Amino acid sequence: MSDFTSGLFTLKQLRGLQKLGDILMPAGHGFPSFSESGCIHQVDTAMGSAHPDDIRDFGFLLLLCYYAPVTVIRWIVSCADHAERFPNLLAIQFRKLNIGIKGVVVSLYYSGKVGIGQTGSPLDVIEFKLTCKPLDQ
Prior knowledge:
By secondary structure, the protein is mostly helical. Helix content is 56%, strand content 0%. The chain has helices at residues 11-24, 34-37, 43-47, 52-67, 70-81, 88-109, 122-125.
């Protein structure tokens, strides 16, 4: 990732995204980890149409992930996964957090796009190929 820069996020935020992504998408069963997939190179494309406030707020979360120990990040992800366990006001925020985190990480991981010098993607592992054919007239 050292040769990659983003127009939306700092290097520390990108490293926080890699840390978060590797927690949600670890390597195993033939799948690459989030960081091994190289999909982080597509983050500006994935986030480019987001509202500037959402980009800023997601950047704060990524910065937190950069500085926080993995156990704290796992706890945050677990709270977001189990939002129903919390009082309604907290549950609402954890559900939003869950959608935001997983929306970005999972979308990047399964985008089919790989980083510079990377070969293969998680879509290759599941043998997914999307093709579009015109309807016969």
